[in-house]
Each structure stands twice: as structure tokens, then as C-alpha cells.
Amino acid sequence: MRDASSDVSILVMNGPNLSRLGKREPTIYGSQTLEDINSELAERFPMVAFEFFQSEFEGALLQKLFDIEDKGGFTGVVLNAGAFTHYSIALRDAISAITTPVIEVHLSNVHSREEFRHKSVISAVCKGVICGFGVKSYHLGVQALMER
Ligand code: DQA
């Protein structure tokens, strides 16, 4: 979906279990699928050249970050790392190793949930954190990157 005529290129990357959105705990995560979320972003921000990526695998997420960093020209990354947020030092180090800015997003307000979700090992190396606004968290992440 990248388009050479766009000034703003954003990778929207989702980690484990986010492929299950729509079916997964809808009372917490809503009823929209990841595809719905991605199409809504593309519709809402037609001026942005989006790339969308999801994986259940930690290494695949790291590799994607390195690929876009090496390709160059990306304005930033909107990242919902799912549960990796809370314990993946490898993901933290990968974000820290690249110069492309990363915004951490979550659908739910992780601070109002179980204690193990209160800690993020990636926040310190992200440009900012947005959580608790459902699908809007992604929109706000894109907005934040566009305004940087
Ligand atoms: C999540 C919150 C995480 O704690 C959880 O592991 C997820 C989704 C969210 O978007 O609210 O998979 O990142």
C-alpha cells in the first residue's frame, strides 16, 4: 500500500494474538477485526502511505523493524506489540537499535487491567505511548507521527 507520491509513510505493526481481533475477548478489544482497523486507517488518512504487518512471532517483528529501517524513508511505526510489550527485551533492543520513531499503542487501558500489564519494557525506547482508546489509539498514533 506504499505510494511514492506520499510524504508520510507509516508502518502499522501488530504482535501476537492481534490477528484474532473481532473474535478475541470483544468486551475488552471490541468487535472490529484487524483488517477493519487497517482499512479504517487507510480511509481516515488517505495522504499516508501505509504498510501493515502482523505476526505471532517475536523474530518476525524484529526483522520487519530492521527491514523498514534499512529501506529508509519511513516516518515512523505505530506498534501494538500485544503481550510482547510486557516482557520482550529483544523487541525493546530492536526499537532502541533503529532511528525510525516508534509509537506504542494499545486498544485497552493496560493500567486498569491486571498488574502484569502495567509494566511495558518498550515504553522507554518509544517516542510515546497511547492506550485505552480502542481503535482510536491507532488513529492517535498516526496523528502523533504526522505532527512530529
Ligand atoms: C494489548 C494489551 C496487552 O496487554 C495484550 O497482551 C494484548 C493487547 C491491547 O491492545 O490492549 O494482546 O496490547
Going by CATH, the architecture would be: 3-Layer(aba) Sandwich
The H/E string reads: EHHEHEHEEH
Bound molecules: 1,3,4-trihydroxy-5-OXO-cyclohexanecarboxylic acid
Number of helices: 5
Observed structural traits:
148 residues, five-stranded parallel sheet, binds 1,3,4-trihydroxy-5-OXO-cyclohexanecarboxylic acid, alpha/beta, Rossmann fold, globular, 5 helices
Descriptive overview:
- The chain has helices spanning 26-29, 34-44, 58-71, 89-97, 136-147, and strands spanning 8-14, 48-54, 76-80, 102-106, 128-131.
- The protein is built from 5 helices and 5 strands, in the order βααβαβαββα.
- α3 packs parallel to α4.
- The two termini are 22 Å apart.
- β3 (76-80), α4 (89-97) and β4 (102-106) form a beta-alpha-beta unit.
- It has a 5-stranded parallel β-sheet, with helices on both faces.
- The chain has a single domain, classed as Dehydroquinase, class II (Rossmann fold, 3-Layer(aba) Sandwich).
- The chain is an alpha/beta fold and 148 residues long.
- 1,3,4-trihydroxy-5-OXO-cyclohexanecarboxylic acid binds next to loops.
Helix-strand layout with pairing:
Elements: E1 8-14, H1 26-29, H2 34-44, E2 48-54, H3 58-71, E3 76-80, H4 89-97, E4 102-106, E5 128-131, H5 136-147
Parallel strand pairs: 1-2, 1-3, 3-4, 4-5
Bound molecules: 1,3,4-trihydroxy-5-OXO-cyclohexanecarboxylic acid.
